[in-house]
From TrEMBL, chain A:
The keyword Membrane applies. Residues 1-26 form the signal peptide. It holds the Pfam family SBP_bac_1. It comes from the Bacteria. This is ABC transporter substrate-binding protein. Keywords: Cell membrane, Lipoprotein, Membrane, Palmitate, Signal.
TrEMBL record, chain B:
It is found in: Cell membrane. Pfam families: BPD_transp_1. PROSITE patterns: ABC_TM1. Signal peptide: none annotated. The keyword DNA-binding does not apply. This is Carbohydrate ABC transporter permease.
Amino acid sequence: MIRHRRRTPRPLVGLAAALALAGTLAACGSGGGGGGAAPGTTLTMWTFKQSHLSALQNAARTFQDKTGVAVNVEAVTPDSTFLARVQAAANTGDLPDVLETHTNGDDFTFGGAGLLEDLSDDVPADWTANYRPAVAGEGTVTEQYYQQSLASGSKTAGVEQGQRFSVPLTIGTFGIVYANRERLAEAGITEAPKTWEDFVAALDAVKRARPQDGGLSLGLQSPSTGLEWVMQPMAYGMLGKQPFEALFSNDPAVNWASPNGTRVLQAYGQITPYWMPGTQTLDIDSADIAFAQGRSSFLVGGTFTLAFLAQNGFDLNNLVTFPIPAPSGGAVSDLSLAPFALTGLSVSATTEHKDAALQWLRHLADPGVATQFARDALDVPPTELGNDAGTVLGPVLGTMVASLGEGETAYNPGYTAYRPGAYDSGRVGEVLMNYTPLQQRDAEGAGHDLADLLGSYWSEER
Amino acid sequence: MTAASSEAVAGAVSPLGRAGRGPHFRRREKAWGYAFVAPALLLFAVMGVYTIAYGFTLSFARWNGFSPRWIWVGLENYIDLLGGSPVYGPPVRAAALNTLWVMIAVPLLTVAVSFPLAVILNSVTRLRTVLRSVYFIPYVTNGIAIYFAWQYIYEPNGAINGVLGALGLGSLQQPQGFLGNPATALPALIVVMVWTAVPVAMLLYLAGLQAIDPALLEAAKIDGAGWWRTNRSVVWPLLTGTTAIVVLLNLRDALQGFQVFLIATNGGPGDATNVLGLETYRLAFLSELAPTLGLASALGWMLFLVALVIALVNQRMLRRLR
């Protein structure tokens, strides 16, 4: 091999150099940040969501018809593989032109590391006017995110206030309960539960009617799901905004070790008998599949779960969906879930086709394209849908979107500024799991464990 | 030999022999030698020395894998892992305890299963090859497939609960599955590790058994020793060296291996099956983009040190046995 390489005839070396030079010149000619996107340019894009792949490819076809610019979309899944590939590509200079990222998460980490273009000067107001006002600015480093980035061990070190590293592609929320309509009816339940107590009663009724498969599945192998998807929305409804956020503070009078914390945990513990057996061993996809296959009758997920259930053959007409409800007599009686940008579109700092990439991002922000993307991906677009979300997105997704709210009565899982910078939801979720479903701690003990762990994060931050 | 005869001999071999090879020839020969060795050296320099040095340096830094610069923290990563940090210390302590259990149980159980199995297989005369192949299957089967298969066996509606129910041993059933109960999850995974470790151990014992002089066994028989006494007092002591190797190999796997824990439980439920190898992996790749690659590297080097100590102790033991 080595000898062969060393003896490469000179004409071949010359040819290779000529081809490389030609490629470089072609790349310079077709991109160049300065002018408009040249027809014939090909963009590359990575997404970490398989369910977005064909929807993006469909959008890419309309984009090519309009501009002559092709987009090669590639799905890199699961998330851990996506991150590893971005890391490798960043080191070898092989990043794609466009990446789909977790909004206010990966985008800030990548942006802080200098892997992404700062889009703050490239996204004008008439572009963001397409988005719902609540999410139009997401992907931008606000003062709170900037302050978090300054903490020791921060995941977003290096970002500057006002920088923008992504524009929204999908929005949604966590804490949506998916229930099997037929099984609810079989247990005599015809309406979606309105309170936490109703929800527990529904779990009880279905479990009694179907002891084998009447339970609630949740991917507790990722322990943060129990914490963030079930308990936190309920706790917000029970306590209201300020006391809820205080649970994560370092003050024992109001944090998890306080009577408020114990009250929340006791209410959360009411679902202990209704977990699907072995749900603590399932990852998120496996829990969704268990529901789709009928091994459980309830599932908690997010707006994004619907597409996965459809992919796995669940009849969407057999679904009842509702947000995790507040306990009766709670501080927020009409609890709803606020949408936030789940995923966004970012432009890599090494792209040679910045103009074309920006055009592609703007194309996806067009209300018509975004709606079609949402239909294809069974996901929620960030654009305004008006009052006919049901017509645009179909009955199930439309109902879900219609139930989303805004303001003080809406719990926003995307807002996390009240937590310490070093917070690791997986570790916190593990401690909570010791309470339910594992039943190794009682509510009070679990509250103290949570307070101790959060205390360690606060001390680390100092 | 006289000087004249020496010259005669030298002269006789001069056209092709050493005396005819001038400095130019030797230089060329040397160059060819270096050229042949160079790829391997280069590969080792890149894949070995460079990565080892890189990893070691990283253990003194804070980095998330994406930012262009490392933040030097000195020995802070090591101190944090050894208890200096209330965030990183406790999970490492819990993982170390689990690892200790695995390091005790896996080698002991592997020896306890593989030695008798090898003795029995060694005495079987019919279908010996088929049986040996069958017992070797766990080793040659893809690890991931094995772990998934065991997951199905352990789940609430899995084979073990089914068999226990059928035998009327319902009280031993695990309603949450054997991997869903923190009390049974770690032992269940230890069983999987032993199951995959037994084939190689058995093969080593079989090789050892066949190297034993039959006259010794004959003598024991003549002295009136039965099957049990022969194996306990003659065969087992003769195979102490093999046992030491089996124990060392399994100690190393128990200390550093984490695939089964990652795939079957991801360290759960809670942190019941988190081990140091998995904790290293989590810090490196599952920390939600936190800058913990340096911590992962430091933990990796601490594991390496423990492995080194184990190897040295084992080497000394083997030397003493000889």
